[in-house]
């Protein structure tokens, strides 16, 4: 017999909700900027790569020097008399016997499309010798020439040279191989004369754009536009406040001529050219219909460094506050203002209409932060009282920073605060009520970064369930954005991500479709709904007990023992761990056990794990220790913390010794962790996990009511919606002509990182005359009623 749920609407509980609820958050992580959204195919075209970006990089990284037999050429790097002092390095090629060439391989090769035109630009000058012929050519996967043209460089002063190259549609043309698509192509500059030539700021961009938006890769912009975001938060994230003062993001250094935008290293392990700077971000927001939400540092650097955050010196704060105020003027000022005139000179005389401004990101909420933040906040309120400032409450939805952040937000009278939460699917299901009791009189919430720890269907369903409750609490949850937004395959700094891509296409995991299903059915009103029937999951957990040591650290586990509740003891002896995963020989069957060891910690930035229970299955446990100590449960393959300590910003000193004792009971549903005899973590899992939800909202302007149903269980369920339909006066005609968008699959663990989701949303007519909706197993449905 099919399970049945009865959904009951509380009509009196109706509440107005935010109409800016669903947005996106862009941070240059995982090659999202250069090599991603940035359409430029040339990597390191300004010759500014260096060891600060990556330990193995230099000024000539990603350039290949070619000197055929019989030729002689030397390739140098200079910084005297550059194009721009902000980015002083450039290439010098000394040619005594031509020809010689430079190849650029781009980001994992260059893709050239049949029929596309590519625009080439470079700054060049002849230092000695006569005019220098430079052949610009596009080469296919096999090295054959796809398109070429020749530029003659005559100027002895830095000059911009441009050329266009078109890839033939098909077949052969003038002896060139007209490939339809090249995936591992290169750009080659061949120098055909003797002399010395300087080169800098070399670019190659496809001419095709998304709605005229230059310098952006059109398919990735389309992926954003299809999400229908109400806002876009940018440019970070951690890169906003950076690793130290020299790495802090200054918005005004990312506008104007690209040559004069000083490059910097990206704390995610690569380079920032700022080809896409603040002006371009604002144009992107305008193009996709999203309100801009720029985030500026709160006058302090990132706390996630070994020495913690460093503030802007007090004597420099007036200048920094001016920088903040200048951004607002740049966005909203008239052309008769200094910064509004600069915006107009860039081609945008109309204001961008900035409403929101973020100050800070995941900051350590200490007295120095509060001091710097308050100065900025007060200045913005005084100069621009209509701007809504979004504050920060740390990196997670609990802990000291979270509590101190909320306390400060209330005391300062902040309108909105930015929360972050990366969790397992089980955590999201268990915490659907997270915002039910948020103070409606205090600051509103922006859940600026969140996601479930994988790209499987179960992760998307957990997000769908939580988003339904965020929508219900949209009177206090003002905004939300999944994070991270983009990741280039083979360059993942973080997983999961909302959109994966390579040089050819974008890939949409399940979370993307969930976001789209909400953002294309936005509402302004919501009602509470009670669900009666089998809506929760109670797991049958295995009694298998095995033990694995894992983590990027080095330590000794002396006298490692496991003792069962019945008194059986297994002594695993002394185990030396060198950072490579160790599966111990332990193999027991018991409902409860304890683990003991003397741990001597030698090396490791963050810490390490004892993974215990059914370690090869999707449900087991983890004891973590290092900068922070915690006990965690793994459910559906990803973990969440039952309890633990704050993560310290100071690395563990070599030789640190801990007496570790962990108790695991109820087949892993309860855990305790003792360090040196002191109980520091104690948690118990709630046994029943909500897996079936129904939420209701309405868009008055569109004249539509939305019923959202999540069934994250392995059997279909009949959902009785008759009371909801009657309570909202849904007509018989509307019920008979409803539509349903259904995202479903047979396997909750289907969906791989970096790949397209195995299934996608399907739109179908729906007849609800009998008031019942049959929700498929493992599904998320949005029912639209006119």
UniProtKB/TrEMBL annotation:
Enzyme class: hydrolase
InterPro entries xref list: Alpha-L-AF_C, ASD1_cat, Galactose-bd-like_sf, GH, Glyco_hydro_b, Glycosyl_Hydrolase_51
Hydrolase in keyword set: yes
Pfam families linked: Alpha-L-AF_C, ASD1_dom
GO molecular function per UniProt: alpha-L-arabinofuranosidase activity
Superkingdom to which the source organism belongs: Bacteria
Alpha-L-arabinofuranosidase C-terminal domain segment(s): 448-779
Keywords: Hydrolase, Signal
Keyword Mitochondrion: no
Reactions this protein catalyses: Hydrolysis of terminal non-reducing alpha-L-arabinofuranoside residues in alpha-L-arabinosides
EC number: 3.2.1.55
GO biological process: L-arabinose metabolic process
Family: Belongs to the glycosyl hydrolase 51 family.
Name under which the protein is recorded: non-reducing end alpha-L-arabinofuranosidase
Organism whose genome encodes this protein: Bifidobacterium longum subsp. longum (strain JDM301)
């Amino acid at each position: 017999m099919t399970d049945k749920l009865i959904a009951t609407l509380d009509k009196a509980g109706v509440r107005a909700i935010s109409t800016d609820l669903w947005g996106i958050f862009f941070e240059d992580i995982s090659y999202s900027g250069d090599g991603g959204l940035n359409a430029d195919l040339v990597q390191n075209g300004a010759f500014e790569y260096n060891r600060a970006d990556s330990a193995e990089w230099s000024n000539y990284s990603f350039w290949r020097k070619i000197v055929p037999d019989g030729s002689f050429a030397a390739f140098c790097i200079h910084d005297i008399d550059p194009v721009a002092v902000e980015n002083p390095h450039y290439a010098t090629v000394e040619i005594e016997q031509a020809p010689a060439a430079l190849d650029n391989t781009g980001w994992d090769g260059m893709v050239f499309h049949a029929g596309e035109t590519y625009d080439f630009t470079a700054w060049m000058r002849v230092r000695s010798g006569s005019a220098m012929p430079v052949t610009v050519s596009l080469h296919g996967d096999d090295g054959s020439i796809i398109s070429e043209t020749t530029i003659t460089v005559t100027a002895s002063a830095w000059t911009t040279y441009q050329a266009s190259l078109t890839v033939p549609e098909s077949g052969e043309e003038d002896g060139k191989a007209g490939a339809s698509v090249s995936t591992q192509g290169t750009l080659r500059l061949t120098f055909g004369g003797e002399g010395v030539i300087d080169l800098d700021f070399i670019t190659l961009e496809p001419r095709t754009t998304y709605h005229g938006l230059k310098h952006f890769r059109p398919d990735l912009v389309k992926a954003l536009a299809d999400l229908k975001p109400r806002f876009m938060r940018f440019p970070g994230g951690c890169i906003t406040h950076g690793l130290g003062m020299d790495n802090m993001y200054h918005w005004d250094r990312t506008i104007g001529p690209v040559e004069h935008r000083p490059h910097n290293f990206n704390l995610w392990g690569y380079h920032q050219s700022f080809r896409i700077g603040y002006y371009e971000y604002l144009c992107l927001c305008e193009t996709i219909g999203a309100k801009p939400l720029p985030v500026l540092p709160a006058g302090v650097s990132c706390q996630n460094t070994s020495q913690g955050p460093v503030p802007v010196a007090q004597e420099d704060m007036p200048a920094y506050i001016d920088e903040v105020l200048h951004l607002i003027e740049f966005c909203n000022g008239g052309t008769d203002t200094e910064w509004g005139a600069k915006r107009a000179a860039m081609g945008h005389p109309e204001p961008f209409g900035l409403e929101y401004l973020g100050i800070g990101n995941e900051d350590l909420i200490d007295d120095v932060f509060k001091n710097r933040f308050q100065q900025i906040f007060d200045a913005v309120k005084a100069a621009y009282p209509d701007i809504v400032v979004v504050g920060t409450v740390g990196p997670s939805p609990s802990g000291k920073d979270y509590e101190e952040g909320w306390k400060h937000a209330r005391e300062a009278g902040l309108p909105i605060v930015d929360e972050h939460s990366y969790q397992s699917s089980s955590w999201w299901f268990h915490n659907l009520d997270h915002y039910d009791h948020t103070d409606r009189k205090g600051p509103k919430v922006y859940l600026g970064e969140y996601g479930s720890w994988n790209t499987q269907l179960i992760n998307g369903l957990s997000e769908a369930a939580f988003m339904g409750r965020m929508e219900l609490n949209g009177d206090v949850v003002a905004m939300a954005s999944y994070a991270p937004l983009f990741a280039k395959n083979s360059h993942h700094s973080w997983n999961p991500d909302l959109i994966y891509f390579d040089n050819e296409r974008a890939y949409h995991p399940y979370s993307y479709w969930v976001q789209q299903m909400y953002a294309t059915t936005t509402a302004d009103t919501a009602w509470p709904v009670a669900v009666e029937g089998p809506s929760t999951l109670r797991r049958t957990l295995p009694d298998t007990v095995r033990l694995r040591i894992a983590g990027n650290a080095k330590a000794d586990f002396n006298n490692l023992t496991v003792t069962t509740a019945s008194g059986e003891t297994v002594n695993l002896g002394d185990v030396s761990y060198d950072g490579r995963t160790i599966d111990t020989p332990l193999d027991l069957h018991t409902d409860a056990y304890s683990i003991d060891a003397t741990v001597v910690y030698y090396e490791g930035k963050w810490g390490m794990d004892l993974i215990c229970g059914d370690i090869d299955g999707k449900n087991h446990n983890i004891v973590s220790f290092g900068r922070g100590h915690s006990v965690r449960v793994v459910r559906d393959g990803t973990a969440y913390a039952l309890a633990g300590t704050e993560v310290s910003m100071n690395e563990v000193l070599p030789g640190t010794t801990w007496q570790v004792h962990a108790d695991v009971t109820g087949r892993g549903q309860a855990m305790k962790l003792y360090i040196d005899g002191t109980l520091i973590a104690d948690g118990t899992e709630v046994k029943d996990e909500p897996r079936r939800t129904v939420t209701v909202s309405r868009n008055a302007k569109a004249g539509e009511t939305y019923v959202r149903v999540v069934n994250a269980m392995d059997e279909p369920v009949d959902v009785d919606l008759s009371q909801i339909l009657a309570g909202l006066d849904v007509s018989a005609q509307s019920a008979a002509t409803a539509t349903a968008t259904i995202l479903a699959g047979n396997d909750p663990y289907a969906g791989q990182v970096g790949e397209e989701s195995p299934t996608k949303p399907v739109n179908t007519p729906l007849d609800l005359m009998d008031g019942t909706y049959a929700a498929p197993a493992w599904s998320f449905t949005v029912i639209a009623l006119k």
